[in-house]
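Exercise: predict the fold of this chain.
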Amino acid sequence: QVQLVESGGGLVQAGGSLRLSCAVSGSIFSPNVMGWYRQAPGKQRELVADITSSSSITYADTVKGRFTISRDNAKNTVYLQMNSLKPEDTAVYYCNLRFRGVDVWGKGTLVTVSS
């Protein structure tokens, strides 16, 4: 069974940086897409960024130029480097993996950006 475990969330001041990691356990197949979503209080979950197994990347307009997604296929891990953080980036960040009809979510990690 495929499982995702996120790490790296926390409290940071506006303008600061955090790096999220998501480790995948279990067997996965290509092609696949790994991504980060976030959900702020009272809002719907939204895509932050995703990256395919062939390294095609999509970013939400709100994070372009500030966040960078990357993956290490050998380690089955996806990362999200978040720079120039803003209070509006405060949310629970979820890792997601999709392949062959499988859609797996992590439990989430909280990112809080103070002003």
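Check your answer against the key: The radius of gyration is 13 Å.
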